[in-house]
Design goal:
The protein is an alpha/beta fold and 335 residues long. 47% of the residues lie in helices and 18% in strands. The protein is elongated and about 80 Å long. The mean pLDDT is 88.
C-alpha cells in the first residue's frame, strides 16, 4: 500500500480555479485503486490524501475524477497540481499541519481544518489504519510545533498588529468603543478582530449612506461626518482609512479633547495613505498614534521571527516522520 496526496494551494493555483475545485467530499468514489481517503478543502487549498495499491495509478484516478466531476479538461488544471507519494506525502501533511505551507506561516486555523477533514472521513468510514494513524499523528505534530517553537507568535497582518497594540494599551478590549472613519478594507478587517472582543462599533464617512452600510456589518451605529468631533470624547479607538488628499484630524482639532475624556487613553490607527491624522497628535499625553508604516514594521519583525523558527519546526517534523513509520510498521504489515 502507498500513501499519496494530490492537490493545489494558493502558491500553485489561482483562486478562480481553486474555487471551482472545492470538493463535495461525500461524492468522491472509492474504487479498486483507492482504499482510504481524506479530503482537505479550504479557501487556500484542495488536497486529496489517499491510500492506494499503486501511487501512479491512484494519482491518475484522482485527477480523472476531478476532470469528470467538474467538467474540466485536464489541460485546464493539471499543471497547477502537485502530487507526493509515501514519505514525501507524509512530510507534506505534517508541514501543512504545522502551518509551514500556509499563506500566513504560523496561522492557527489550518490545524482545526485538518482535524475536521479527518473526523468527517472517519465518520463516513473512508479511513483505515494508514490514514487514521497519519492524521492523528499530523494533528499531534501541529500541536507540538506550536507548543515547542515560536512559529505562531507575533502578529503578521497589519490588522492583527493593530489589535495587538490596542491590547497593550488598554489591556482587555471588552466594551471598548471603536470609530471607523472611511471605508477601507483594512479598517473593516481590524474592526472584525476588535468586535470579537465585545467592542462597540461606530462608523462615519463623508457619504452618510456608506457609513450606514459599514455600521450595519457590525451591528453598530452610523455617525454623520460633521459630527465626528462630537463623538470622539466617547471613543477609545479610532481606525481611519479614507482616500482624502489631506489630513482630516489635526492637532488643533483635539488639543482640548483629553479633559473631556477625563484623560482616558485614546488610540488612533491611521491606515490611510496619504495619512489622515496629524502625526503631532501622538505628542499629546494619553494619545497613542500608529500609522501604516509603524504597523508594517511590527509585521515584518514578526515575520522574520517566524522565519527563524522554521528550521526548528522542520527538525520536529523529521523526527515525527520516523516515529510515524515506526508505529505503522508495528500496526500493519507495511511494504
Amino acid at each position: 500500500m502507498e500513501i499519496i496526496v494530490v492537490g493545489a494551494n494558493h502558491k500553485t493555483m489561482p483562486v478562480e480555479l481553486r474555487e471551482r475545485l472545492a470538493i463535495n467530499k461525500a461524492s468522491f468514489p472509492f474504487n479498486e485503486d483507492i482504499k482510504e481517503m481524506v479530503i482537505l478543502s479550504t479557501c487556500n487549498r484542495v488536497e486529496v490524501y489517499a491510500v492506494t495499491t499503486n501511487a501512479k495509478e491512484g494519482t491518475a484516478r484522482i485527477i480523472d475524477f476531478l476532470s469528470q466531476y467538474y467538467c474540466l479538461k485536464k489541460v485546464e488544471f493539471e499543471t497547477y497540481l502537485y502530487s507526493y507519494q509515501n514519505e514525501e506525502a507524509v512530510r507534506h501533511l505534517f508541514k501543512v499541519a504545522a502551518s509551514l505551507d500556509s499563506m500566513v506561516v504560523g496561522e492557527p486555523q489550518i490545524l482545526g481544518q485538518i482535524k475536521s477533514a479527518y473526523e468527517e472521513a472517519f465518520k463516513t468510514k473512508r479511513t483505515g489504519p494508514y490514514l487514521n494513524n497519519l492524521f492523528q499523528k499530523a494533528i499531534l505534530v501541529g500541536k507540538k510545533v506550536r507548543n515547542q517553537t515560536e512559529i505562531g507568535k507575533g502578529a503578521v497582518t497589519v490588522s492583527f498588529a493593530a489589535v495587538k497594540l490596542a491590547k497593550k494599551i488598554f489591556g482587555e478590549l471588552d466594551n471598548k468603543k471603536i470609530l471607523i472613519i472611511g471605508a477601507g478594507k483594512m479598517s473593516e478587517e481590524t474592526a472584525k478582530y476588535l468586535i470579537a472582543n465585545k467592542s462597540s462599533i461606530f462608523a462615519t464617512n463623508r457619504t452618510y449612506e456608506k457609513a450606514v452600510e459599514i455600521a450595519a456589518k457590525f451591528s453598530g451605529r452610523a455617525i454623520k461626518f460633521d459630527e465626528l468631533f462630537n463623538i470622539l470624547p466617547e471613543i477609545d479607538i479610532v481606525i481611519s482609512s479614507t482616500s482624502a488628499p489631506h489630513l482630516i484630524i489635526k492637532k488643533e482639532d483635539i488639543k482640548n479633547l483629553m479633559p473631556l475624556r477625563y484623560y482616558k487613553p485614546l488610540f488612533f490607527i491611521d491606515i490611510a495613505v496619504p495619512r489622515d491624522i496629524d502625526p503631532d497628535i501622538g505628542n499629546i499625553d494619553g494619545i497613542y498614534l500608529y500609522n501604516i508604516d509603524d504597523l508594517q514594521a511590527v509585521v515584518q519583525s514578526n515575520i522574520k521571527l517566524r522565519q527563524k523558527e522554521i528550521t526548528k519546526c522542520e527538525t520536529i517534523i523529521e523526527k515525527e516522520i520516523k516515529e510515524f513509520y515506526r508505529i505503522l510498521h508495528c500496526l500493519i504489515n507495511y511494504d
